[in-house]
Amino acid sequence: MKSDTPSVIFTWDGVRRGARMCMPLAFASFFGGLGFGILAGDTGLSLAQAMGMSALVFAGASQMVAMDVWTFPPAVLGLAIAAFAINIRHVVMGAALRPWLRGLPLLRSHAALLMMTDANWAQAMAVRRKGELDAAILVGSGLVMWLGWVSGTGVGQAAGNLIADPKTFGVDMIVPAFFALTLPSLWPGVRHLHPWVVAAAVAVVVHALLPHGTWHVVAGGLVGAAVGGLSRE
Known about the structure:
One of its GO terms (cellular component) is plasma membrane. The chain has 233 residues and is mainly α. Helix content is 72%, strand content 0%.
């Protein structure tokens, strides 16, 4: 018996529509990359290194934290753990996309997940709830955000090298400001507030016990993500 349920599609038109839909967010991504580029230059990364990191990693929050704790030579294990803790939320986000991507070939579904960010994921989920079938929306929207982030990184790194002491312009406040600006887009509503509260409480306690380093970020991220995953309806 033939199913009446519409099938998922993946088209170039979806890529184009996703790109147009996410263009305002691409400008925000550019300015976020600008801030990261300035921090990267101040940390000692070259233009190629900073842009390469943005192009390959493409994870704003973890890149910002990496610059905040960067050492020479880099403490690779510590950076990896911090990035994992911050980005573990993507496991839950990817699971939410499973009903949409499940019917696609593996390469196409992975291409969509590769371009997933907090902002375009939320946008894609919103249009999905309205009946959108084209999963390429996620690729197009992520692609323009990626271009904004990488180009902003290049401009920021180049401009940062022209500033003798970036901290005089408040560059050291970019990391907390970045997180403050991204919080509203991630707000889950009061019903789903408890993982945030738990994560914040754990981070405060761990910071009191281990005031040096960024272990409070790692602990808060891991515990908060675990609570959110376990309580997901």
